Amino acid sequence: MRLDGRLDEPFWRTADSIDDFRQREPLAGSTATERTVVKVARDGTALYIAVRCYDADMRHVRASQLRRDADLSSDDNVRLLIDSFDDQRSAFVFGTNPNGAMWDAQFSGVDDLNENWNGVWDVAVSRDSAGWTAEFRIPILALRFHAGTTTEFGFNVRRFIRRKNEEDLWRSYGRAQGLYHLNNEGAITGLSDLHRTHDLELYPYALGRAVETEHDSVGGETRSGYFGGKAGIDAKLGLTPTLTADLTVNTDFAQVEADQQVINLTRFPFFFPEKREFFLESRGLLDLGTPGRVQLFYSRRIGLDTGGAPVPILAGGRLYGRLGPWRVGVLDAQTGGRDDANDAVARVQLDLFDRSYVGAIGTLHAGPQGQGVARAGGLDLDFPLVVHGANLEPKVWIAGSQTPGKPGTPLAWRLSTDNPNDLFDNFISLYRIDSGFAPPVGFVRRTGIWETTGHVDFMPRPGVLGIRQLDFTFPIPSWDIIANESGSLLRSADWQTAWFEWRVFGGDRHNGDHFEINFQRLMDAPPDAFDIFRGVVIQPGRYWWSRYELQYFMNPGRPLSLGGFLNWGRLYGGHSTDIELTAAWRGGGHIILSTGLTRTVARLPAGTFTALQSSSRLEYDLNTRTSLLAFVQYDNESERLDFNLRFHWIPVIGDDVYLVWNSGYTTYPGAPHRFPETRSLAQPLNGAFVVKVVHRVAPTP
User: Fold this and answer.
1) In the structure, what pLDDT confidence band is assigned to residue 377 with cuts at 50, 70 and 90?
2) Strand arrangement, sheet containing 294-295
3) CATH fit for domain 11-188, picks 3.40.50.300, 2.60.40.1190, 3.30.300.20, 3.50.50.60
4) Radius of gyration of the chain, Cα coordinates, nearest whole angstrom
5) pTM exceeding 0.85
6) CA separation for the pair 248, 276 (Å, rounded)
7) Cβ–Cβ < 8 Å for 333, 299
8) How confident is the model over 20-76, as pLDDT tens digits?
9) Distance CA 298, CA 291 (A)
């Protein structure tokens, strides 16, 4: 068949179809305002799914994105959910918009959506005066399932109409449900005799690199430039229909976008998200803990040093999937260079009841000879429930670590319960993290503490003044309190830090805009002096202060969307004002422009400073398979300006061609030549131009 979005093949006329779509937003359970028809067909190699989106006002259908994996929330879009294990615990998600942009993700658990997963599939879209049509082709090889003669997939479809901010679903359209509430999904039946072979996909790559001579901030050479090349290979092997092995040799991530610069005005480490593709697939399975606070597995510990510079990964392997009621995940990586080490993680989860599980994890880091082996392990239990139509999720985890040369096994644990529903959204947690707790391939923001976090949100729907839903945290504030491990959370004298926020007025408008008015009360008791900004030192003490906050962010579906954030008040015995401004222009063609600026002006007893961070992005998409991204960012703490330019071409699905240029320049006032002086271009802090080609070799579906 020809994939063109026109549905003129004869089999579409007789294919089974569904059209009973209901609103989840704004009027839960009401008939959708625009008709949607979904048809499903299959042959021996693929599923074919057609979604016909009728629309009485095609002139106002939003379609601004073209790039693969772009955020489609600014546009009209459809998403298909395929629970190929039919276990109501995990699913593949495929999406597109009226431009035919491709978006995909893996979903697992209750709320783990991994948008960085990339499957091999295709979609074509056509438009006419009565609506638009998306025609998906999803190869059987892209899915994981239990082979047999009675194969059935869980299935759901979601349509979003941007100009109305209307969310329509075939199933699971209740206020406390949604696309990812898998126990309310529908099904695709009649898929008998599906079989997945022991397929092998190979992804060999080759790259060439020109690296510029690096300089320090005053123009002195720190490392000579060079020309080089590299080759490697990734492999994906389907061991069984439910179990997959990945291998990587001489791994390279040259195409990964640079990290967002941040100015950290706290005394605690900042959490950067993972962006490297090898570590992103099935990411949620290989973790235990709370992201950004305590994680036993934080993949940026592998192949990156503490400053974010790459460390060579010589080889790595991963095994993941299902063995009956067990979900399993194993990863091992060997790094070279100055960090000659082996890192490994093993994770299992045993299904309980409808959506619950009990799990275990073990990690280790074997450093260079003589450094010994550091270990960590943990257990967790997740027990999501639906009680009288309302969501309730109790959860507990406990972990311990062992470090060579240090006695004992420090522990960390958390008890929590979440109650995410439409009128009330409540959460409470309690942590204990011992001093010395140090998972070797994990992330821990703070140790030696008790901590409690929580919120009680009241979210009525008044239906007046253009307001769709309000959000109050009043009179009970949101909170995050941390006390000494030898103290008590019930005694404020033992607190190390505290944060309280009362949302006195906030919510979402019918047009998609979001607003908040907040009052905050904060406390910090640093035991030692620390640098809050260059040359400004906060002395030990006990500080309390109050702050006020205003936010307003426009609907991203507008051609021009603006956002503003203003926070002001006391800070460490002085005063500060934070301003954040964002703007994005999406004209509906091939160009998207966005920019953001964050500025903090502080006048403290220890000194005065202005912290400034800005970033701008230009995206030009020739079509759904060819894109150019330009990213520039600056901050006045590091006193540097960085450029990242990336051209990405997808000749066929599975193949990739990248051209990447990165360069950084000093803005240090004492430098003899600083940006934007022309002569500074010859003295970059760092710079490289990379050409990388990846080719997929796989069985022809």
Assistant:
1) very high
2) 289-290, 294-295, 443-444
3) 2.60.40.1190
4) 26
5) yes
6) 13
7) no
8) 999 999 999 999 999 999 999 998 889 999 999 999 999 999 999 999 999 999 999
9) 9
